Amino acid sequence: MHLRSTLGTIKAMVGGVTSLDHSFFIEKIAPLDQAGPDDLAIIIPRGDVSVFDPISLEEIKKSKAGVILTQKALDEDQRYLVVGNVLEAVRTLQAWEKNNSLKSSFLRHPSASIDLMAQLHDTVYLGPFTVIERDVTVGASSFIGPHVFIGKESKIGNNVTIHPGVVILSQTIIEDNSTIHSGTVIGSDGFGYQVNATGMEKIPQLGYVHIGHNVEIGANCSIDRAAFEKTYIGTGVKIDNNVHIAHGVHIGDHTAILALTGIAGSARIGTGCQIGGQVAIKDHVVIGNRVKIVSQSAVIKNVSDGEIVAGSPAIPLKMWRRTIASITKLPELFKQAQAIQTHLEKSQRRWWHRFF
Predict the structure, then answer these.
(1) What residues have CB less than 8 Å from 324, skipping those under 6 apart?
(2) Residue 269: is its pLDDT beyond 70?
(3) What Rg value do the Cα atoms of the chain yield, rounded?
(4) Cβ–Cβ contacts within 10 Å for residue 121, how many?
(5) What is the rounded average pLDDT for all residues in the chain?
(6) DSSP letter at 298?
């Protein structure tokens, strides 16, 4: 993200403490290991219960960043802007950059198609070739990127960001401060069929999708509408790219779901869960609160609060580790079994020849 501003201007927005010259010019935000002398790098604390490793002191020492935004100066040879809350500072910079971009463009592009019955706040941005159907409402300061489709009777809250190429089908609800990334489809029909002697008949999918506050949904995800009620994504949920959420699924607040995970119909997932990549969750399974599921696991039965599970089928992590350790010993155990079998066969032959 380009900033093209002085350190003094940035400090005025985010606060904090620095010993550097306020006239120092910052070109852009860049990763710690790729930042150059004109760049701002950021160190974000991972959190006490995160499954991700923190950034190492060695990585910080090696960085060539002009300034590092952090909550704590970790190496005295580096140059810092120390703030009380890094995440809040980054959000402030992102909002500032977004507002600067909108100032130089149409608030509503002339090619956007807006139904006369739609209600959009005056501060909504609409990109080129967006389509807004009847009885849609969109709240203040929301950003609707190019080639976005929003179906009839959908309700989009305040400060919602919908990136280019998103499809939001009818009656979808997206609450305030949520973000939907490109290629995602929300509200498509659930995969529901009645199987009979002549084939399969489609079950009408008459429900809708409800997405809570402060949700972020990655690129190329699909979230199906429920058959008769709703598919629900709770407040603060974070969903990675290429995740499929089937009809009638309920996901509790502040749960994180990594890429390529598939959650089958009517599954219930609690609050504060961490679900790894390429996880499969069976239909109607109930997963408790604060559960952690290791990548590539297959969950086929209920999981209690606070459990950590792994494997296919998923079992408690300690048991899975013991199982994997045992599996790695199987080749050696097989050799030993063959040696014992050979020894017994030789012993039997010697015994036979002794008496006959």
Answers:
(1) none
(2) yes
(3) 27
(4) 13
(5) 92
(6) E
Check whether 120 has a pLDDT greater than 90.
yes
Burial class, 140, CB count within 10 angstroms (exposed 0-12 / middle 13-18 / buried 19+): middle
- Which pair of structure tokens corresponds to residue 348? 């039997």
Classified as helix, coil or strand, 208 is strand
Q: Across residues 34-46, what is the average pLDDT?
A: 91
Going from the N-terminus, what domains does the chain have, and what CATH number goes with each? 2-103 (3.40.1390.10), 166-313 (2.160.10.10)
DSSP string, 126-192: E-TT-EE-TT-EE-TT-EE-TT-EE-TT-EE-TT-EE-TT-EE-TT-EE-TT-EE-TT-EEEEPP--
pLDDT at 106 > cutoff 60: no
190-247 pLDDT, tens per residue? Answer: 999 999 999 999 999 999 999 999 999 999 999 999 999 999 999 999 999 999 999 9
* Spatial contact of 77 and 65, defined as CB atoms under 8 Å apart: no
Q: Burial of 41 by CB count in 10 Å (0-12 exposed, 13-18 middle, 19+ buried)?
A: buried
What are the catalytic residues? 247
Contact 68, 80 (CB under 8 A): yes
Nearest to 192 by CA among 181, 183, 184, 201: 201
Residue 350 pLDDT exceeds 80: no
Q: For residue range 75-96, what is the model confidence (pLDDT) as tens digits?
A: 888 999 999 999 999 999 988 8
Comparing C-alpha atoms, which of 252, 251, 254 is closest to residue 236? 254
Q: Which residues contact 19 (CB under 8 A, 6 or more apart)?
A: 79
User: What is the strand order of the sheet 125-126 is part of?
Assistant: 125-126, 143-144, 161-162, 179-180, 216-217, 238-239, 256-257, 274-275, 292-293, 308-310, 315-316
